[in-house]
Specification:
The protein has 17 helices and 5 strands. The chain is mainly alpha-helical. Strand 2 (242-245) and strand 3 (248-251) form a beta hairpin.
C-alpha cells in the first residue's frame, strides 16, 4: 500500500487527484467548524455528551462530523442519500423512471432530479433536526427558531445551502479526485471522531481495561470479517461457442462470471442509517404526545429490541434490494447471448437471467446477514454490558466500546479504503504498474 502511494505520487496526474481529494476534505472540515447563527454552544455540548450513541451519533456520522458543531453543513449529505433512496424505490413502480434509466442521458437526468429532491428533504431535516435537539436536550439549541421569522428563514436557507455545498464537494472528489466522494466525506468524519471517542471511552468508564479489550476484539474481528465477505466471490462458468469464418475458427473459450457475496458494499448500511433516523426526525414536526415520545425513545435514543431488530431488517432488506437492482442493470444474460456465451446446462435468455438472479440472492443472503450482524454490534455489546455491569452501565460512547467506530462506521471505513485502493490500483495498472494489493 505504501509502495502504491509512492508510485501514485510519482505520476503528476495521480498526484494531482490525491492532492485535490485531500484539499476538498480540508475544505469540508473547515466548513464543519462554521456554526449556524444563533446556536447555543453550551446546550449543544451538553446534549451531544449525553446522546452521542443514539440518533445524534448517526446524524453526526452521516454529516462527516459536522453535526457536533451544528455547522452550516450539519445536514451533511443525508438529504441527498434520502432523495436517492426515494427515487431508487420509486423506479420499479413508476414506468417513466424505469424507462429513463435505459435512455441515453437518462442517468444524468435522474441525477438532476435527485439534486432537486434533496432541497426539500434538506429543509425538512433542518426543521426536524432542530426540533429533536430541543426535545432531547430540553433547552432550545437555537433560541428564537420558529418564533423569529428572520432567524428561522436565515437558518433554513443557510443549512440548505450548506447541504448542497457538501454534495457538490463530494461530487468534486468523485470527478476530480480518487474514490466515491460522498463515501469519502463520511469516512473522513468517522476517522476524525475516533480518537476523541476512544479517549472518552477510557476516561469516562469504571472499566477501562475491559473496554479496551472489547474495542480491540470488536475492531479486529469486524475488519477480518468485512474483508472476507467483501472479497468473497462465487464464479459461474461461462462457455463461448465456436464460430468458423473461412478457414479460421473463433471462440470456444471458457471463462466465468464473478458474483460477489456482497456486491453493493456499504451502500445498504448508509441507506439503512438514513431511513432508521427518519421516523425520529419526522415525528418531531408534530405536537407532543405518547406516540411521539415512544418513537423518540426507540428511534431517537437508538435503544431497545425494536430499534435493533428494525435496523437489522433494513440492512438485510436494502442489501437484497440493491443486489437485485445492480444485477438487473448489468443485463448479464443479454450481454452473454449477444457475444455467443452461455452457462453450461442453462438456456440462453430469460432462463440464464433467472439463474443468475437465483444464485445472486442465495449468496447475497450470507453477505446481508453478516452486514446486519455487524450493524447491530453496539446493541449486542450493550446487552452484554447490562448483564456484566448492571449498576455501572453508561449509554453512548462513554460506556460502549462498539460506538467508538460502530459497526456501521467500520463497514464504511473498510469499504471506502478497499474501494479507493482498487480505483488507485486501476489507475496504476493503466500506466503499466504491477498490482499492489497482495
Amino acid at each position: 500500500m505504501i509502495e502504491a502511494l509512492r508510485n501514485a505520487l510519482r505520476l503528476p496526474d495521480l498526484r494531482n487527484k490525491l492532492l485535490i481529494t485531500g484539499l476538498i476534505l480540508v475544505i469540508y472540515q473547515f466548513a464543519a467548524h462554521v456554526p449556524v447563527v444563533g446556536v447555543d454552544r453550551t446546550a449543544l455540548r451538553s446534549l451531544l455528551e449525553g446522546q452521542s450513541g443514539g440518533l445524534l451519533g448517526v446524524l453526526n456520522l452521516l454529516s462527516g462530523g459536522a453535526l457536533q458543531n451544528f455547522s452550516v453543513i450539519a445536514n451533511g449529505v443525508y438529504p441527498y442519500i434520502t432523495a436517492s433512496i426515494i427515487l431508487q424505490v420509486l423506479t420499479p413502480v413508476i414506468p417513466a423512471l424505469e424507462a429513463m434509466d435505459k435512455e441515453p442521458g437518462g442517468k444524468e437526468k435522474k441525477e438532476t432530479y435527485t439534486y432537486y429532491l434533496a432541497i426539500p428533504m434538506s429543509i425538512l431535516q433542518v426543521v426536524s433536526q432542530i426540533q429533536i435537539f430541543n426535545t432531547l436536550g430540553g433547552t432550545p439549541i437555537i433560541p428564537g427558531f420558529g418564533s423569529d421569522v428572520l432567524l428561522t428563514i436565515t437558518v433554513i436557507a443557510t443549512m440548505t445551502a450548506g447541504t448542497m455545498f457538501a454534495i457538490w464537494l463530494g461530487n468534486m472528489i468523485t470527478e476530480q479526485g480518487i474514490g466515491n466522494g460522498l463515501s469519502i466525506i463520511i469516512f473522513s468524519g468517522i476517522v476524525a471522531q475516533a480518537p476523541g471517542n476512544l479517549i472518552r471511552l477510557l476516561n469516562s468508564s469504571t472499566q477501562p481495561v475491559v473496554n479496551i479489550i472489547f474495542f480491540i476484539a470488536i475492531t479486529i474481528l469486524s475488519v477480518i470479517g468485512i474483508i472476507f465477505i467483501q472479497e468473497g466471490v462465487r464464479r459461474i462458468p461461462v462457455q463461448y461457442g465456436k464460430r468458423v469464418r473461412g478457414r479460421k475458427q473463433y471462440g470456444g473459450a471458457s471463462t466465468h462470471i464473478p458474483l460477489k457475496v456482497n456486491p453493493v458494499g456499504m451502500i445498504p448500511l448508509i441507506f439503512a442509517q438514513a431511513i432508521i433516523s427518519f421516523p425520529a426526525l419526522l415525528v418531531n414536526l408534530f405536537p407532543d404526545g405518547p406516540v411521539r415520545q415512544s418513537i423518540n425513545a426507540t428511534f431517537g435514543q437508538h435503544q431497545g429490541l425494536a430499534y435493533w431488530l428494525t435496523f437489522f431488517a433494513l440492512v438485510v432488506g436494502f442489501t437484497f434490494l440493491y443486489s437485485d437492482i445492480m444485477i438487473g442493470n448489468q443485463n448479464l444474460s443479454e450481454n452473454l447471448q449477444r457475444n455467443g456465451g452461455f452457462i453450461p446446462g442453462i438456456r440462453p435468455g430469460k432462463r440464464t437471467q433467472d439463474y443468475i438472479v437465483r444464485v445472486t440472492r442465495r449468496i447475497t443472503l450470507v453477505g446481508a446477514l453478516f452486514l446486519g450482524i455487524v450493524a447491530v454490534v453496539p446493541g449486542i455489546v450493550e446487552f452484554i454490558y447490562r448483564i456484566l455491569f448492571p449498576n455501572e452501565f453508561v449509554t453512548g460512547v462513554a460506556g460502549n466500546p462498539a460506538y467508538v467506530l460502530s459497526g456501521s462506521g467500520l463497514i464504511i471505513v473498510v469499504g471506502v479504503v478497499i474501494d479507493t485502493l482498487r480505483q488507485l490500483e486501476a489507475q496504476l495498472v493503466m500506466r503499466n504498474y504491477d498490482r499492489f494489493i497482495r
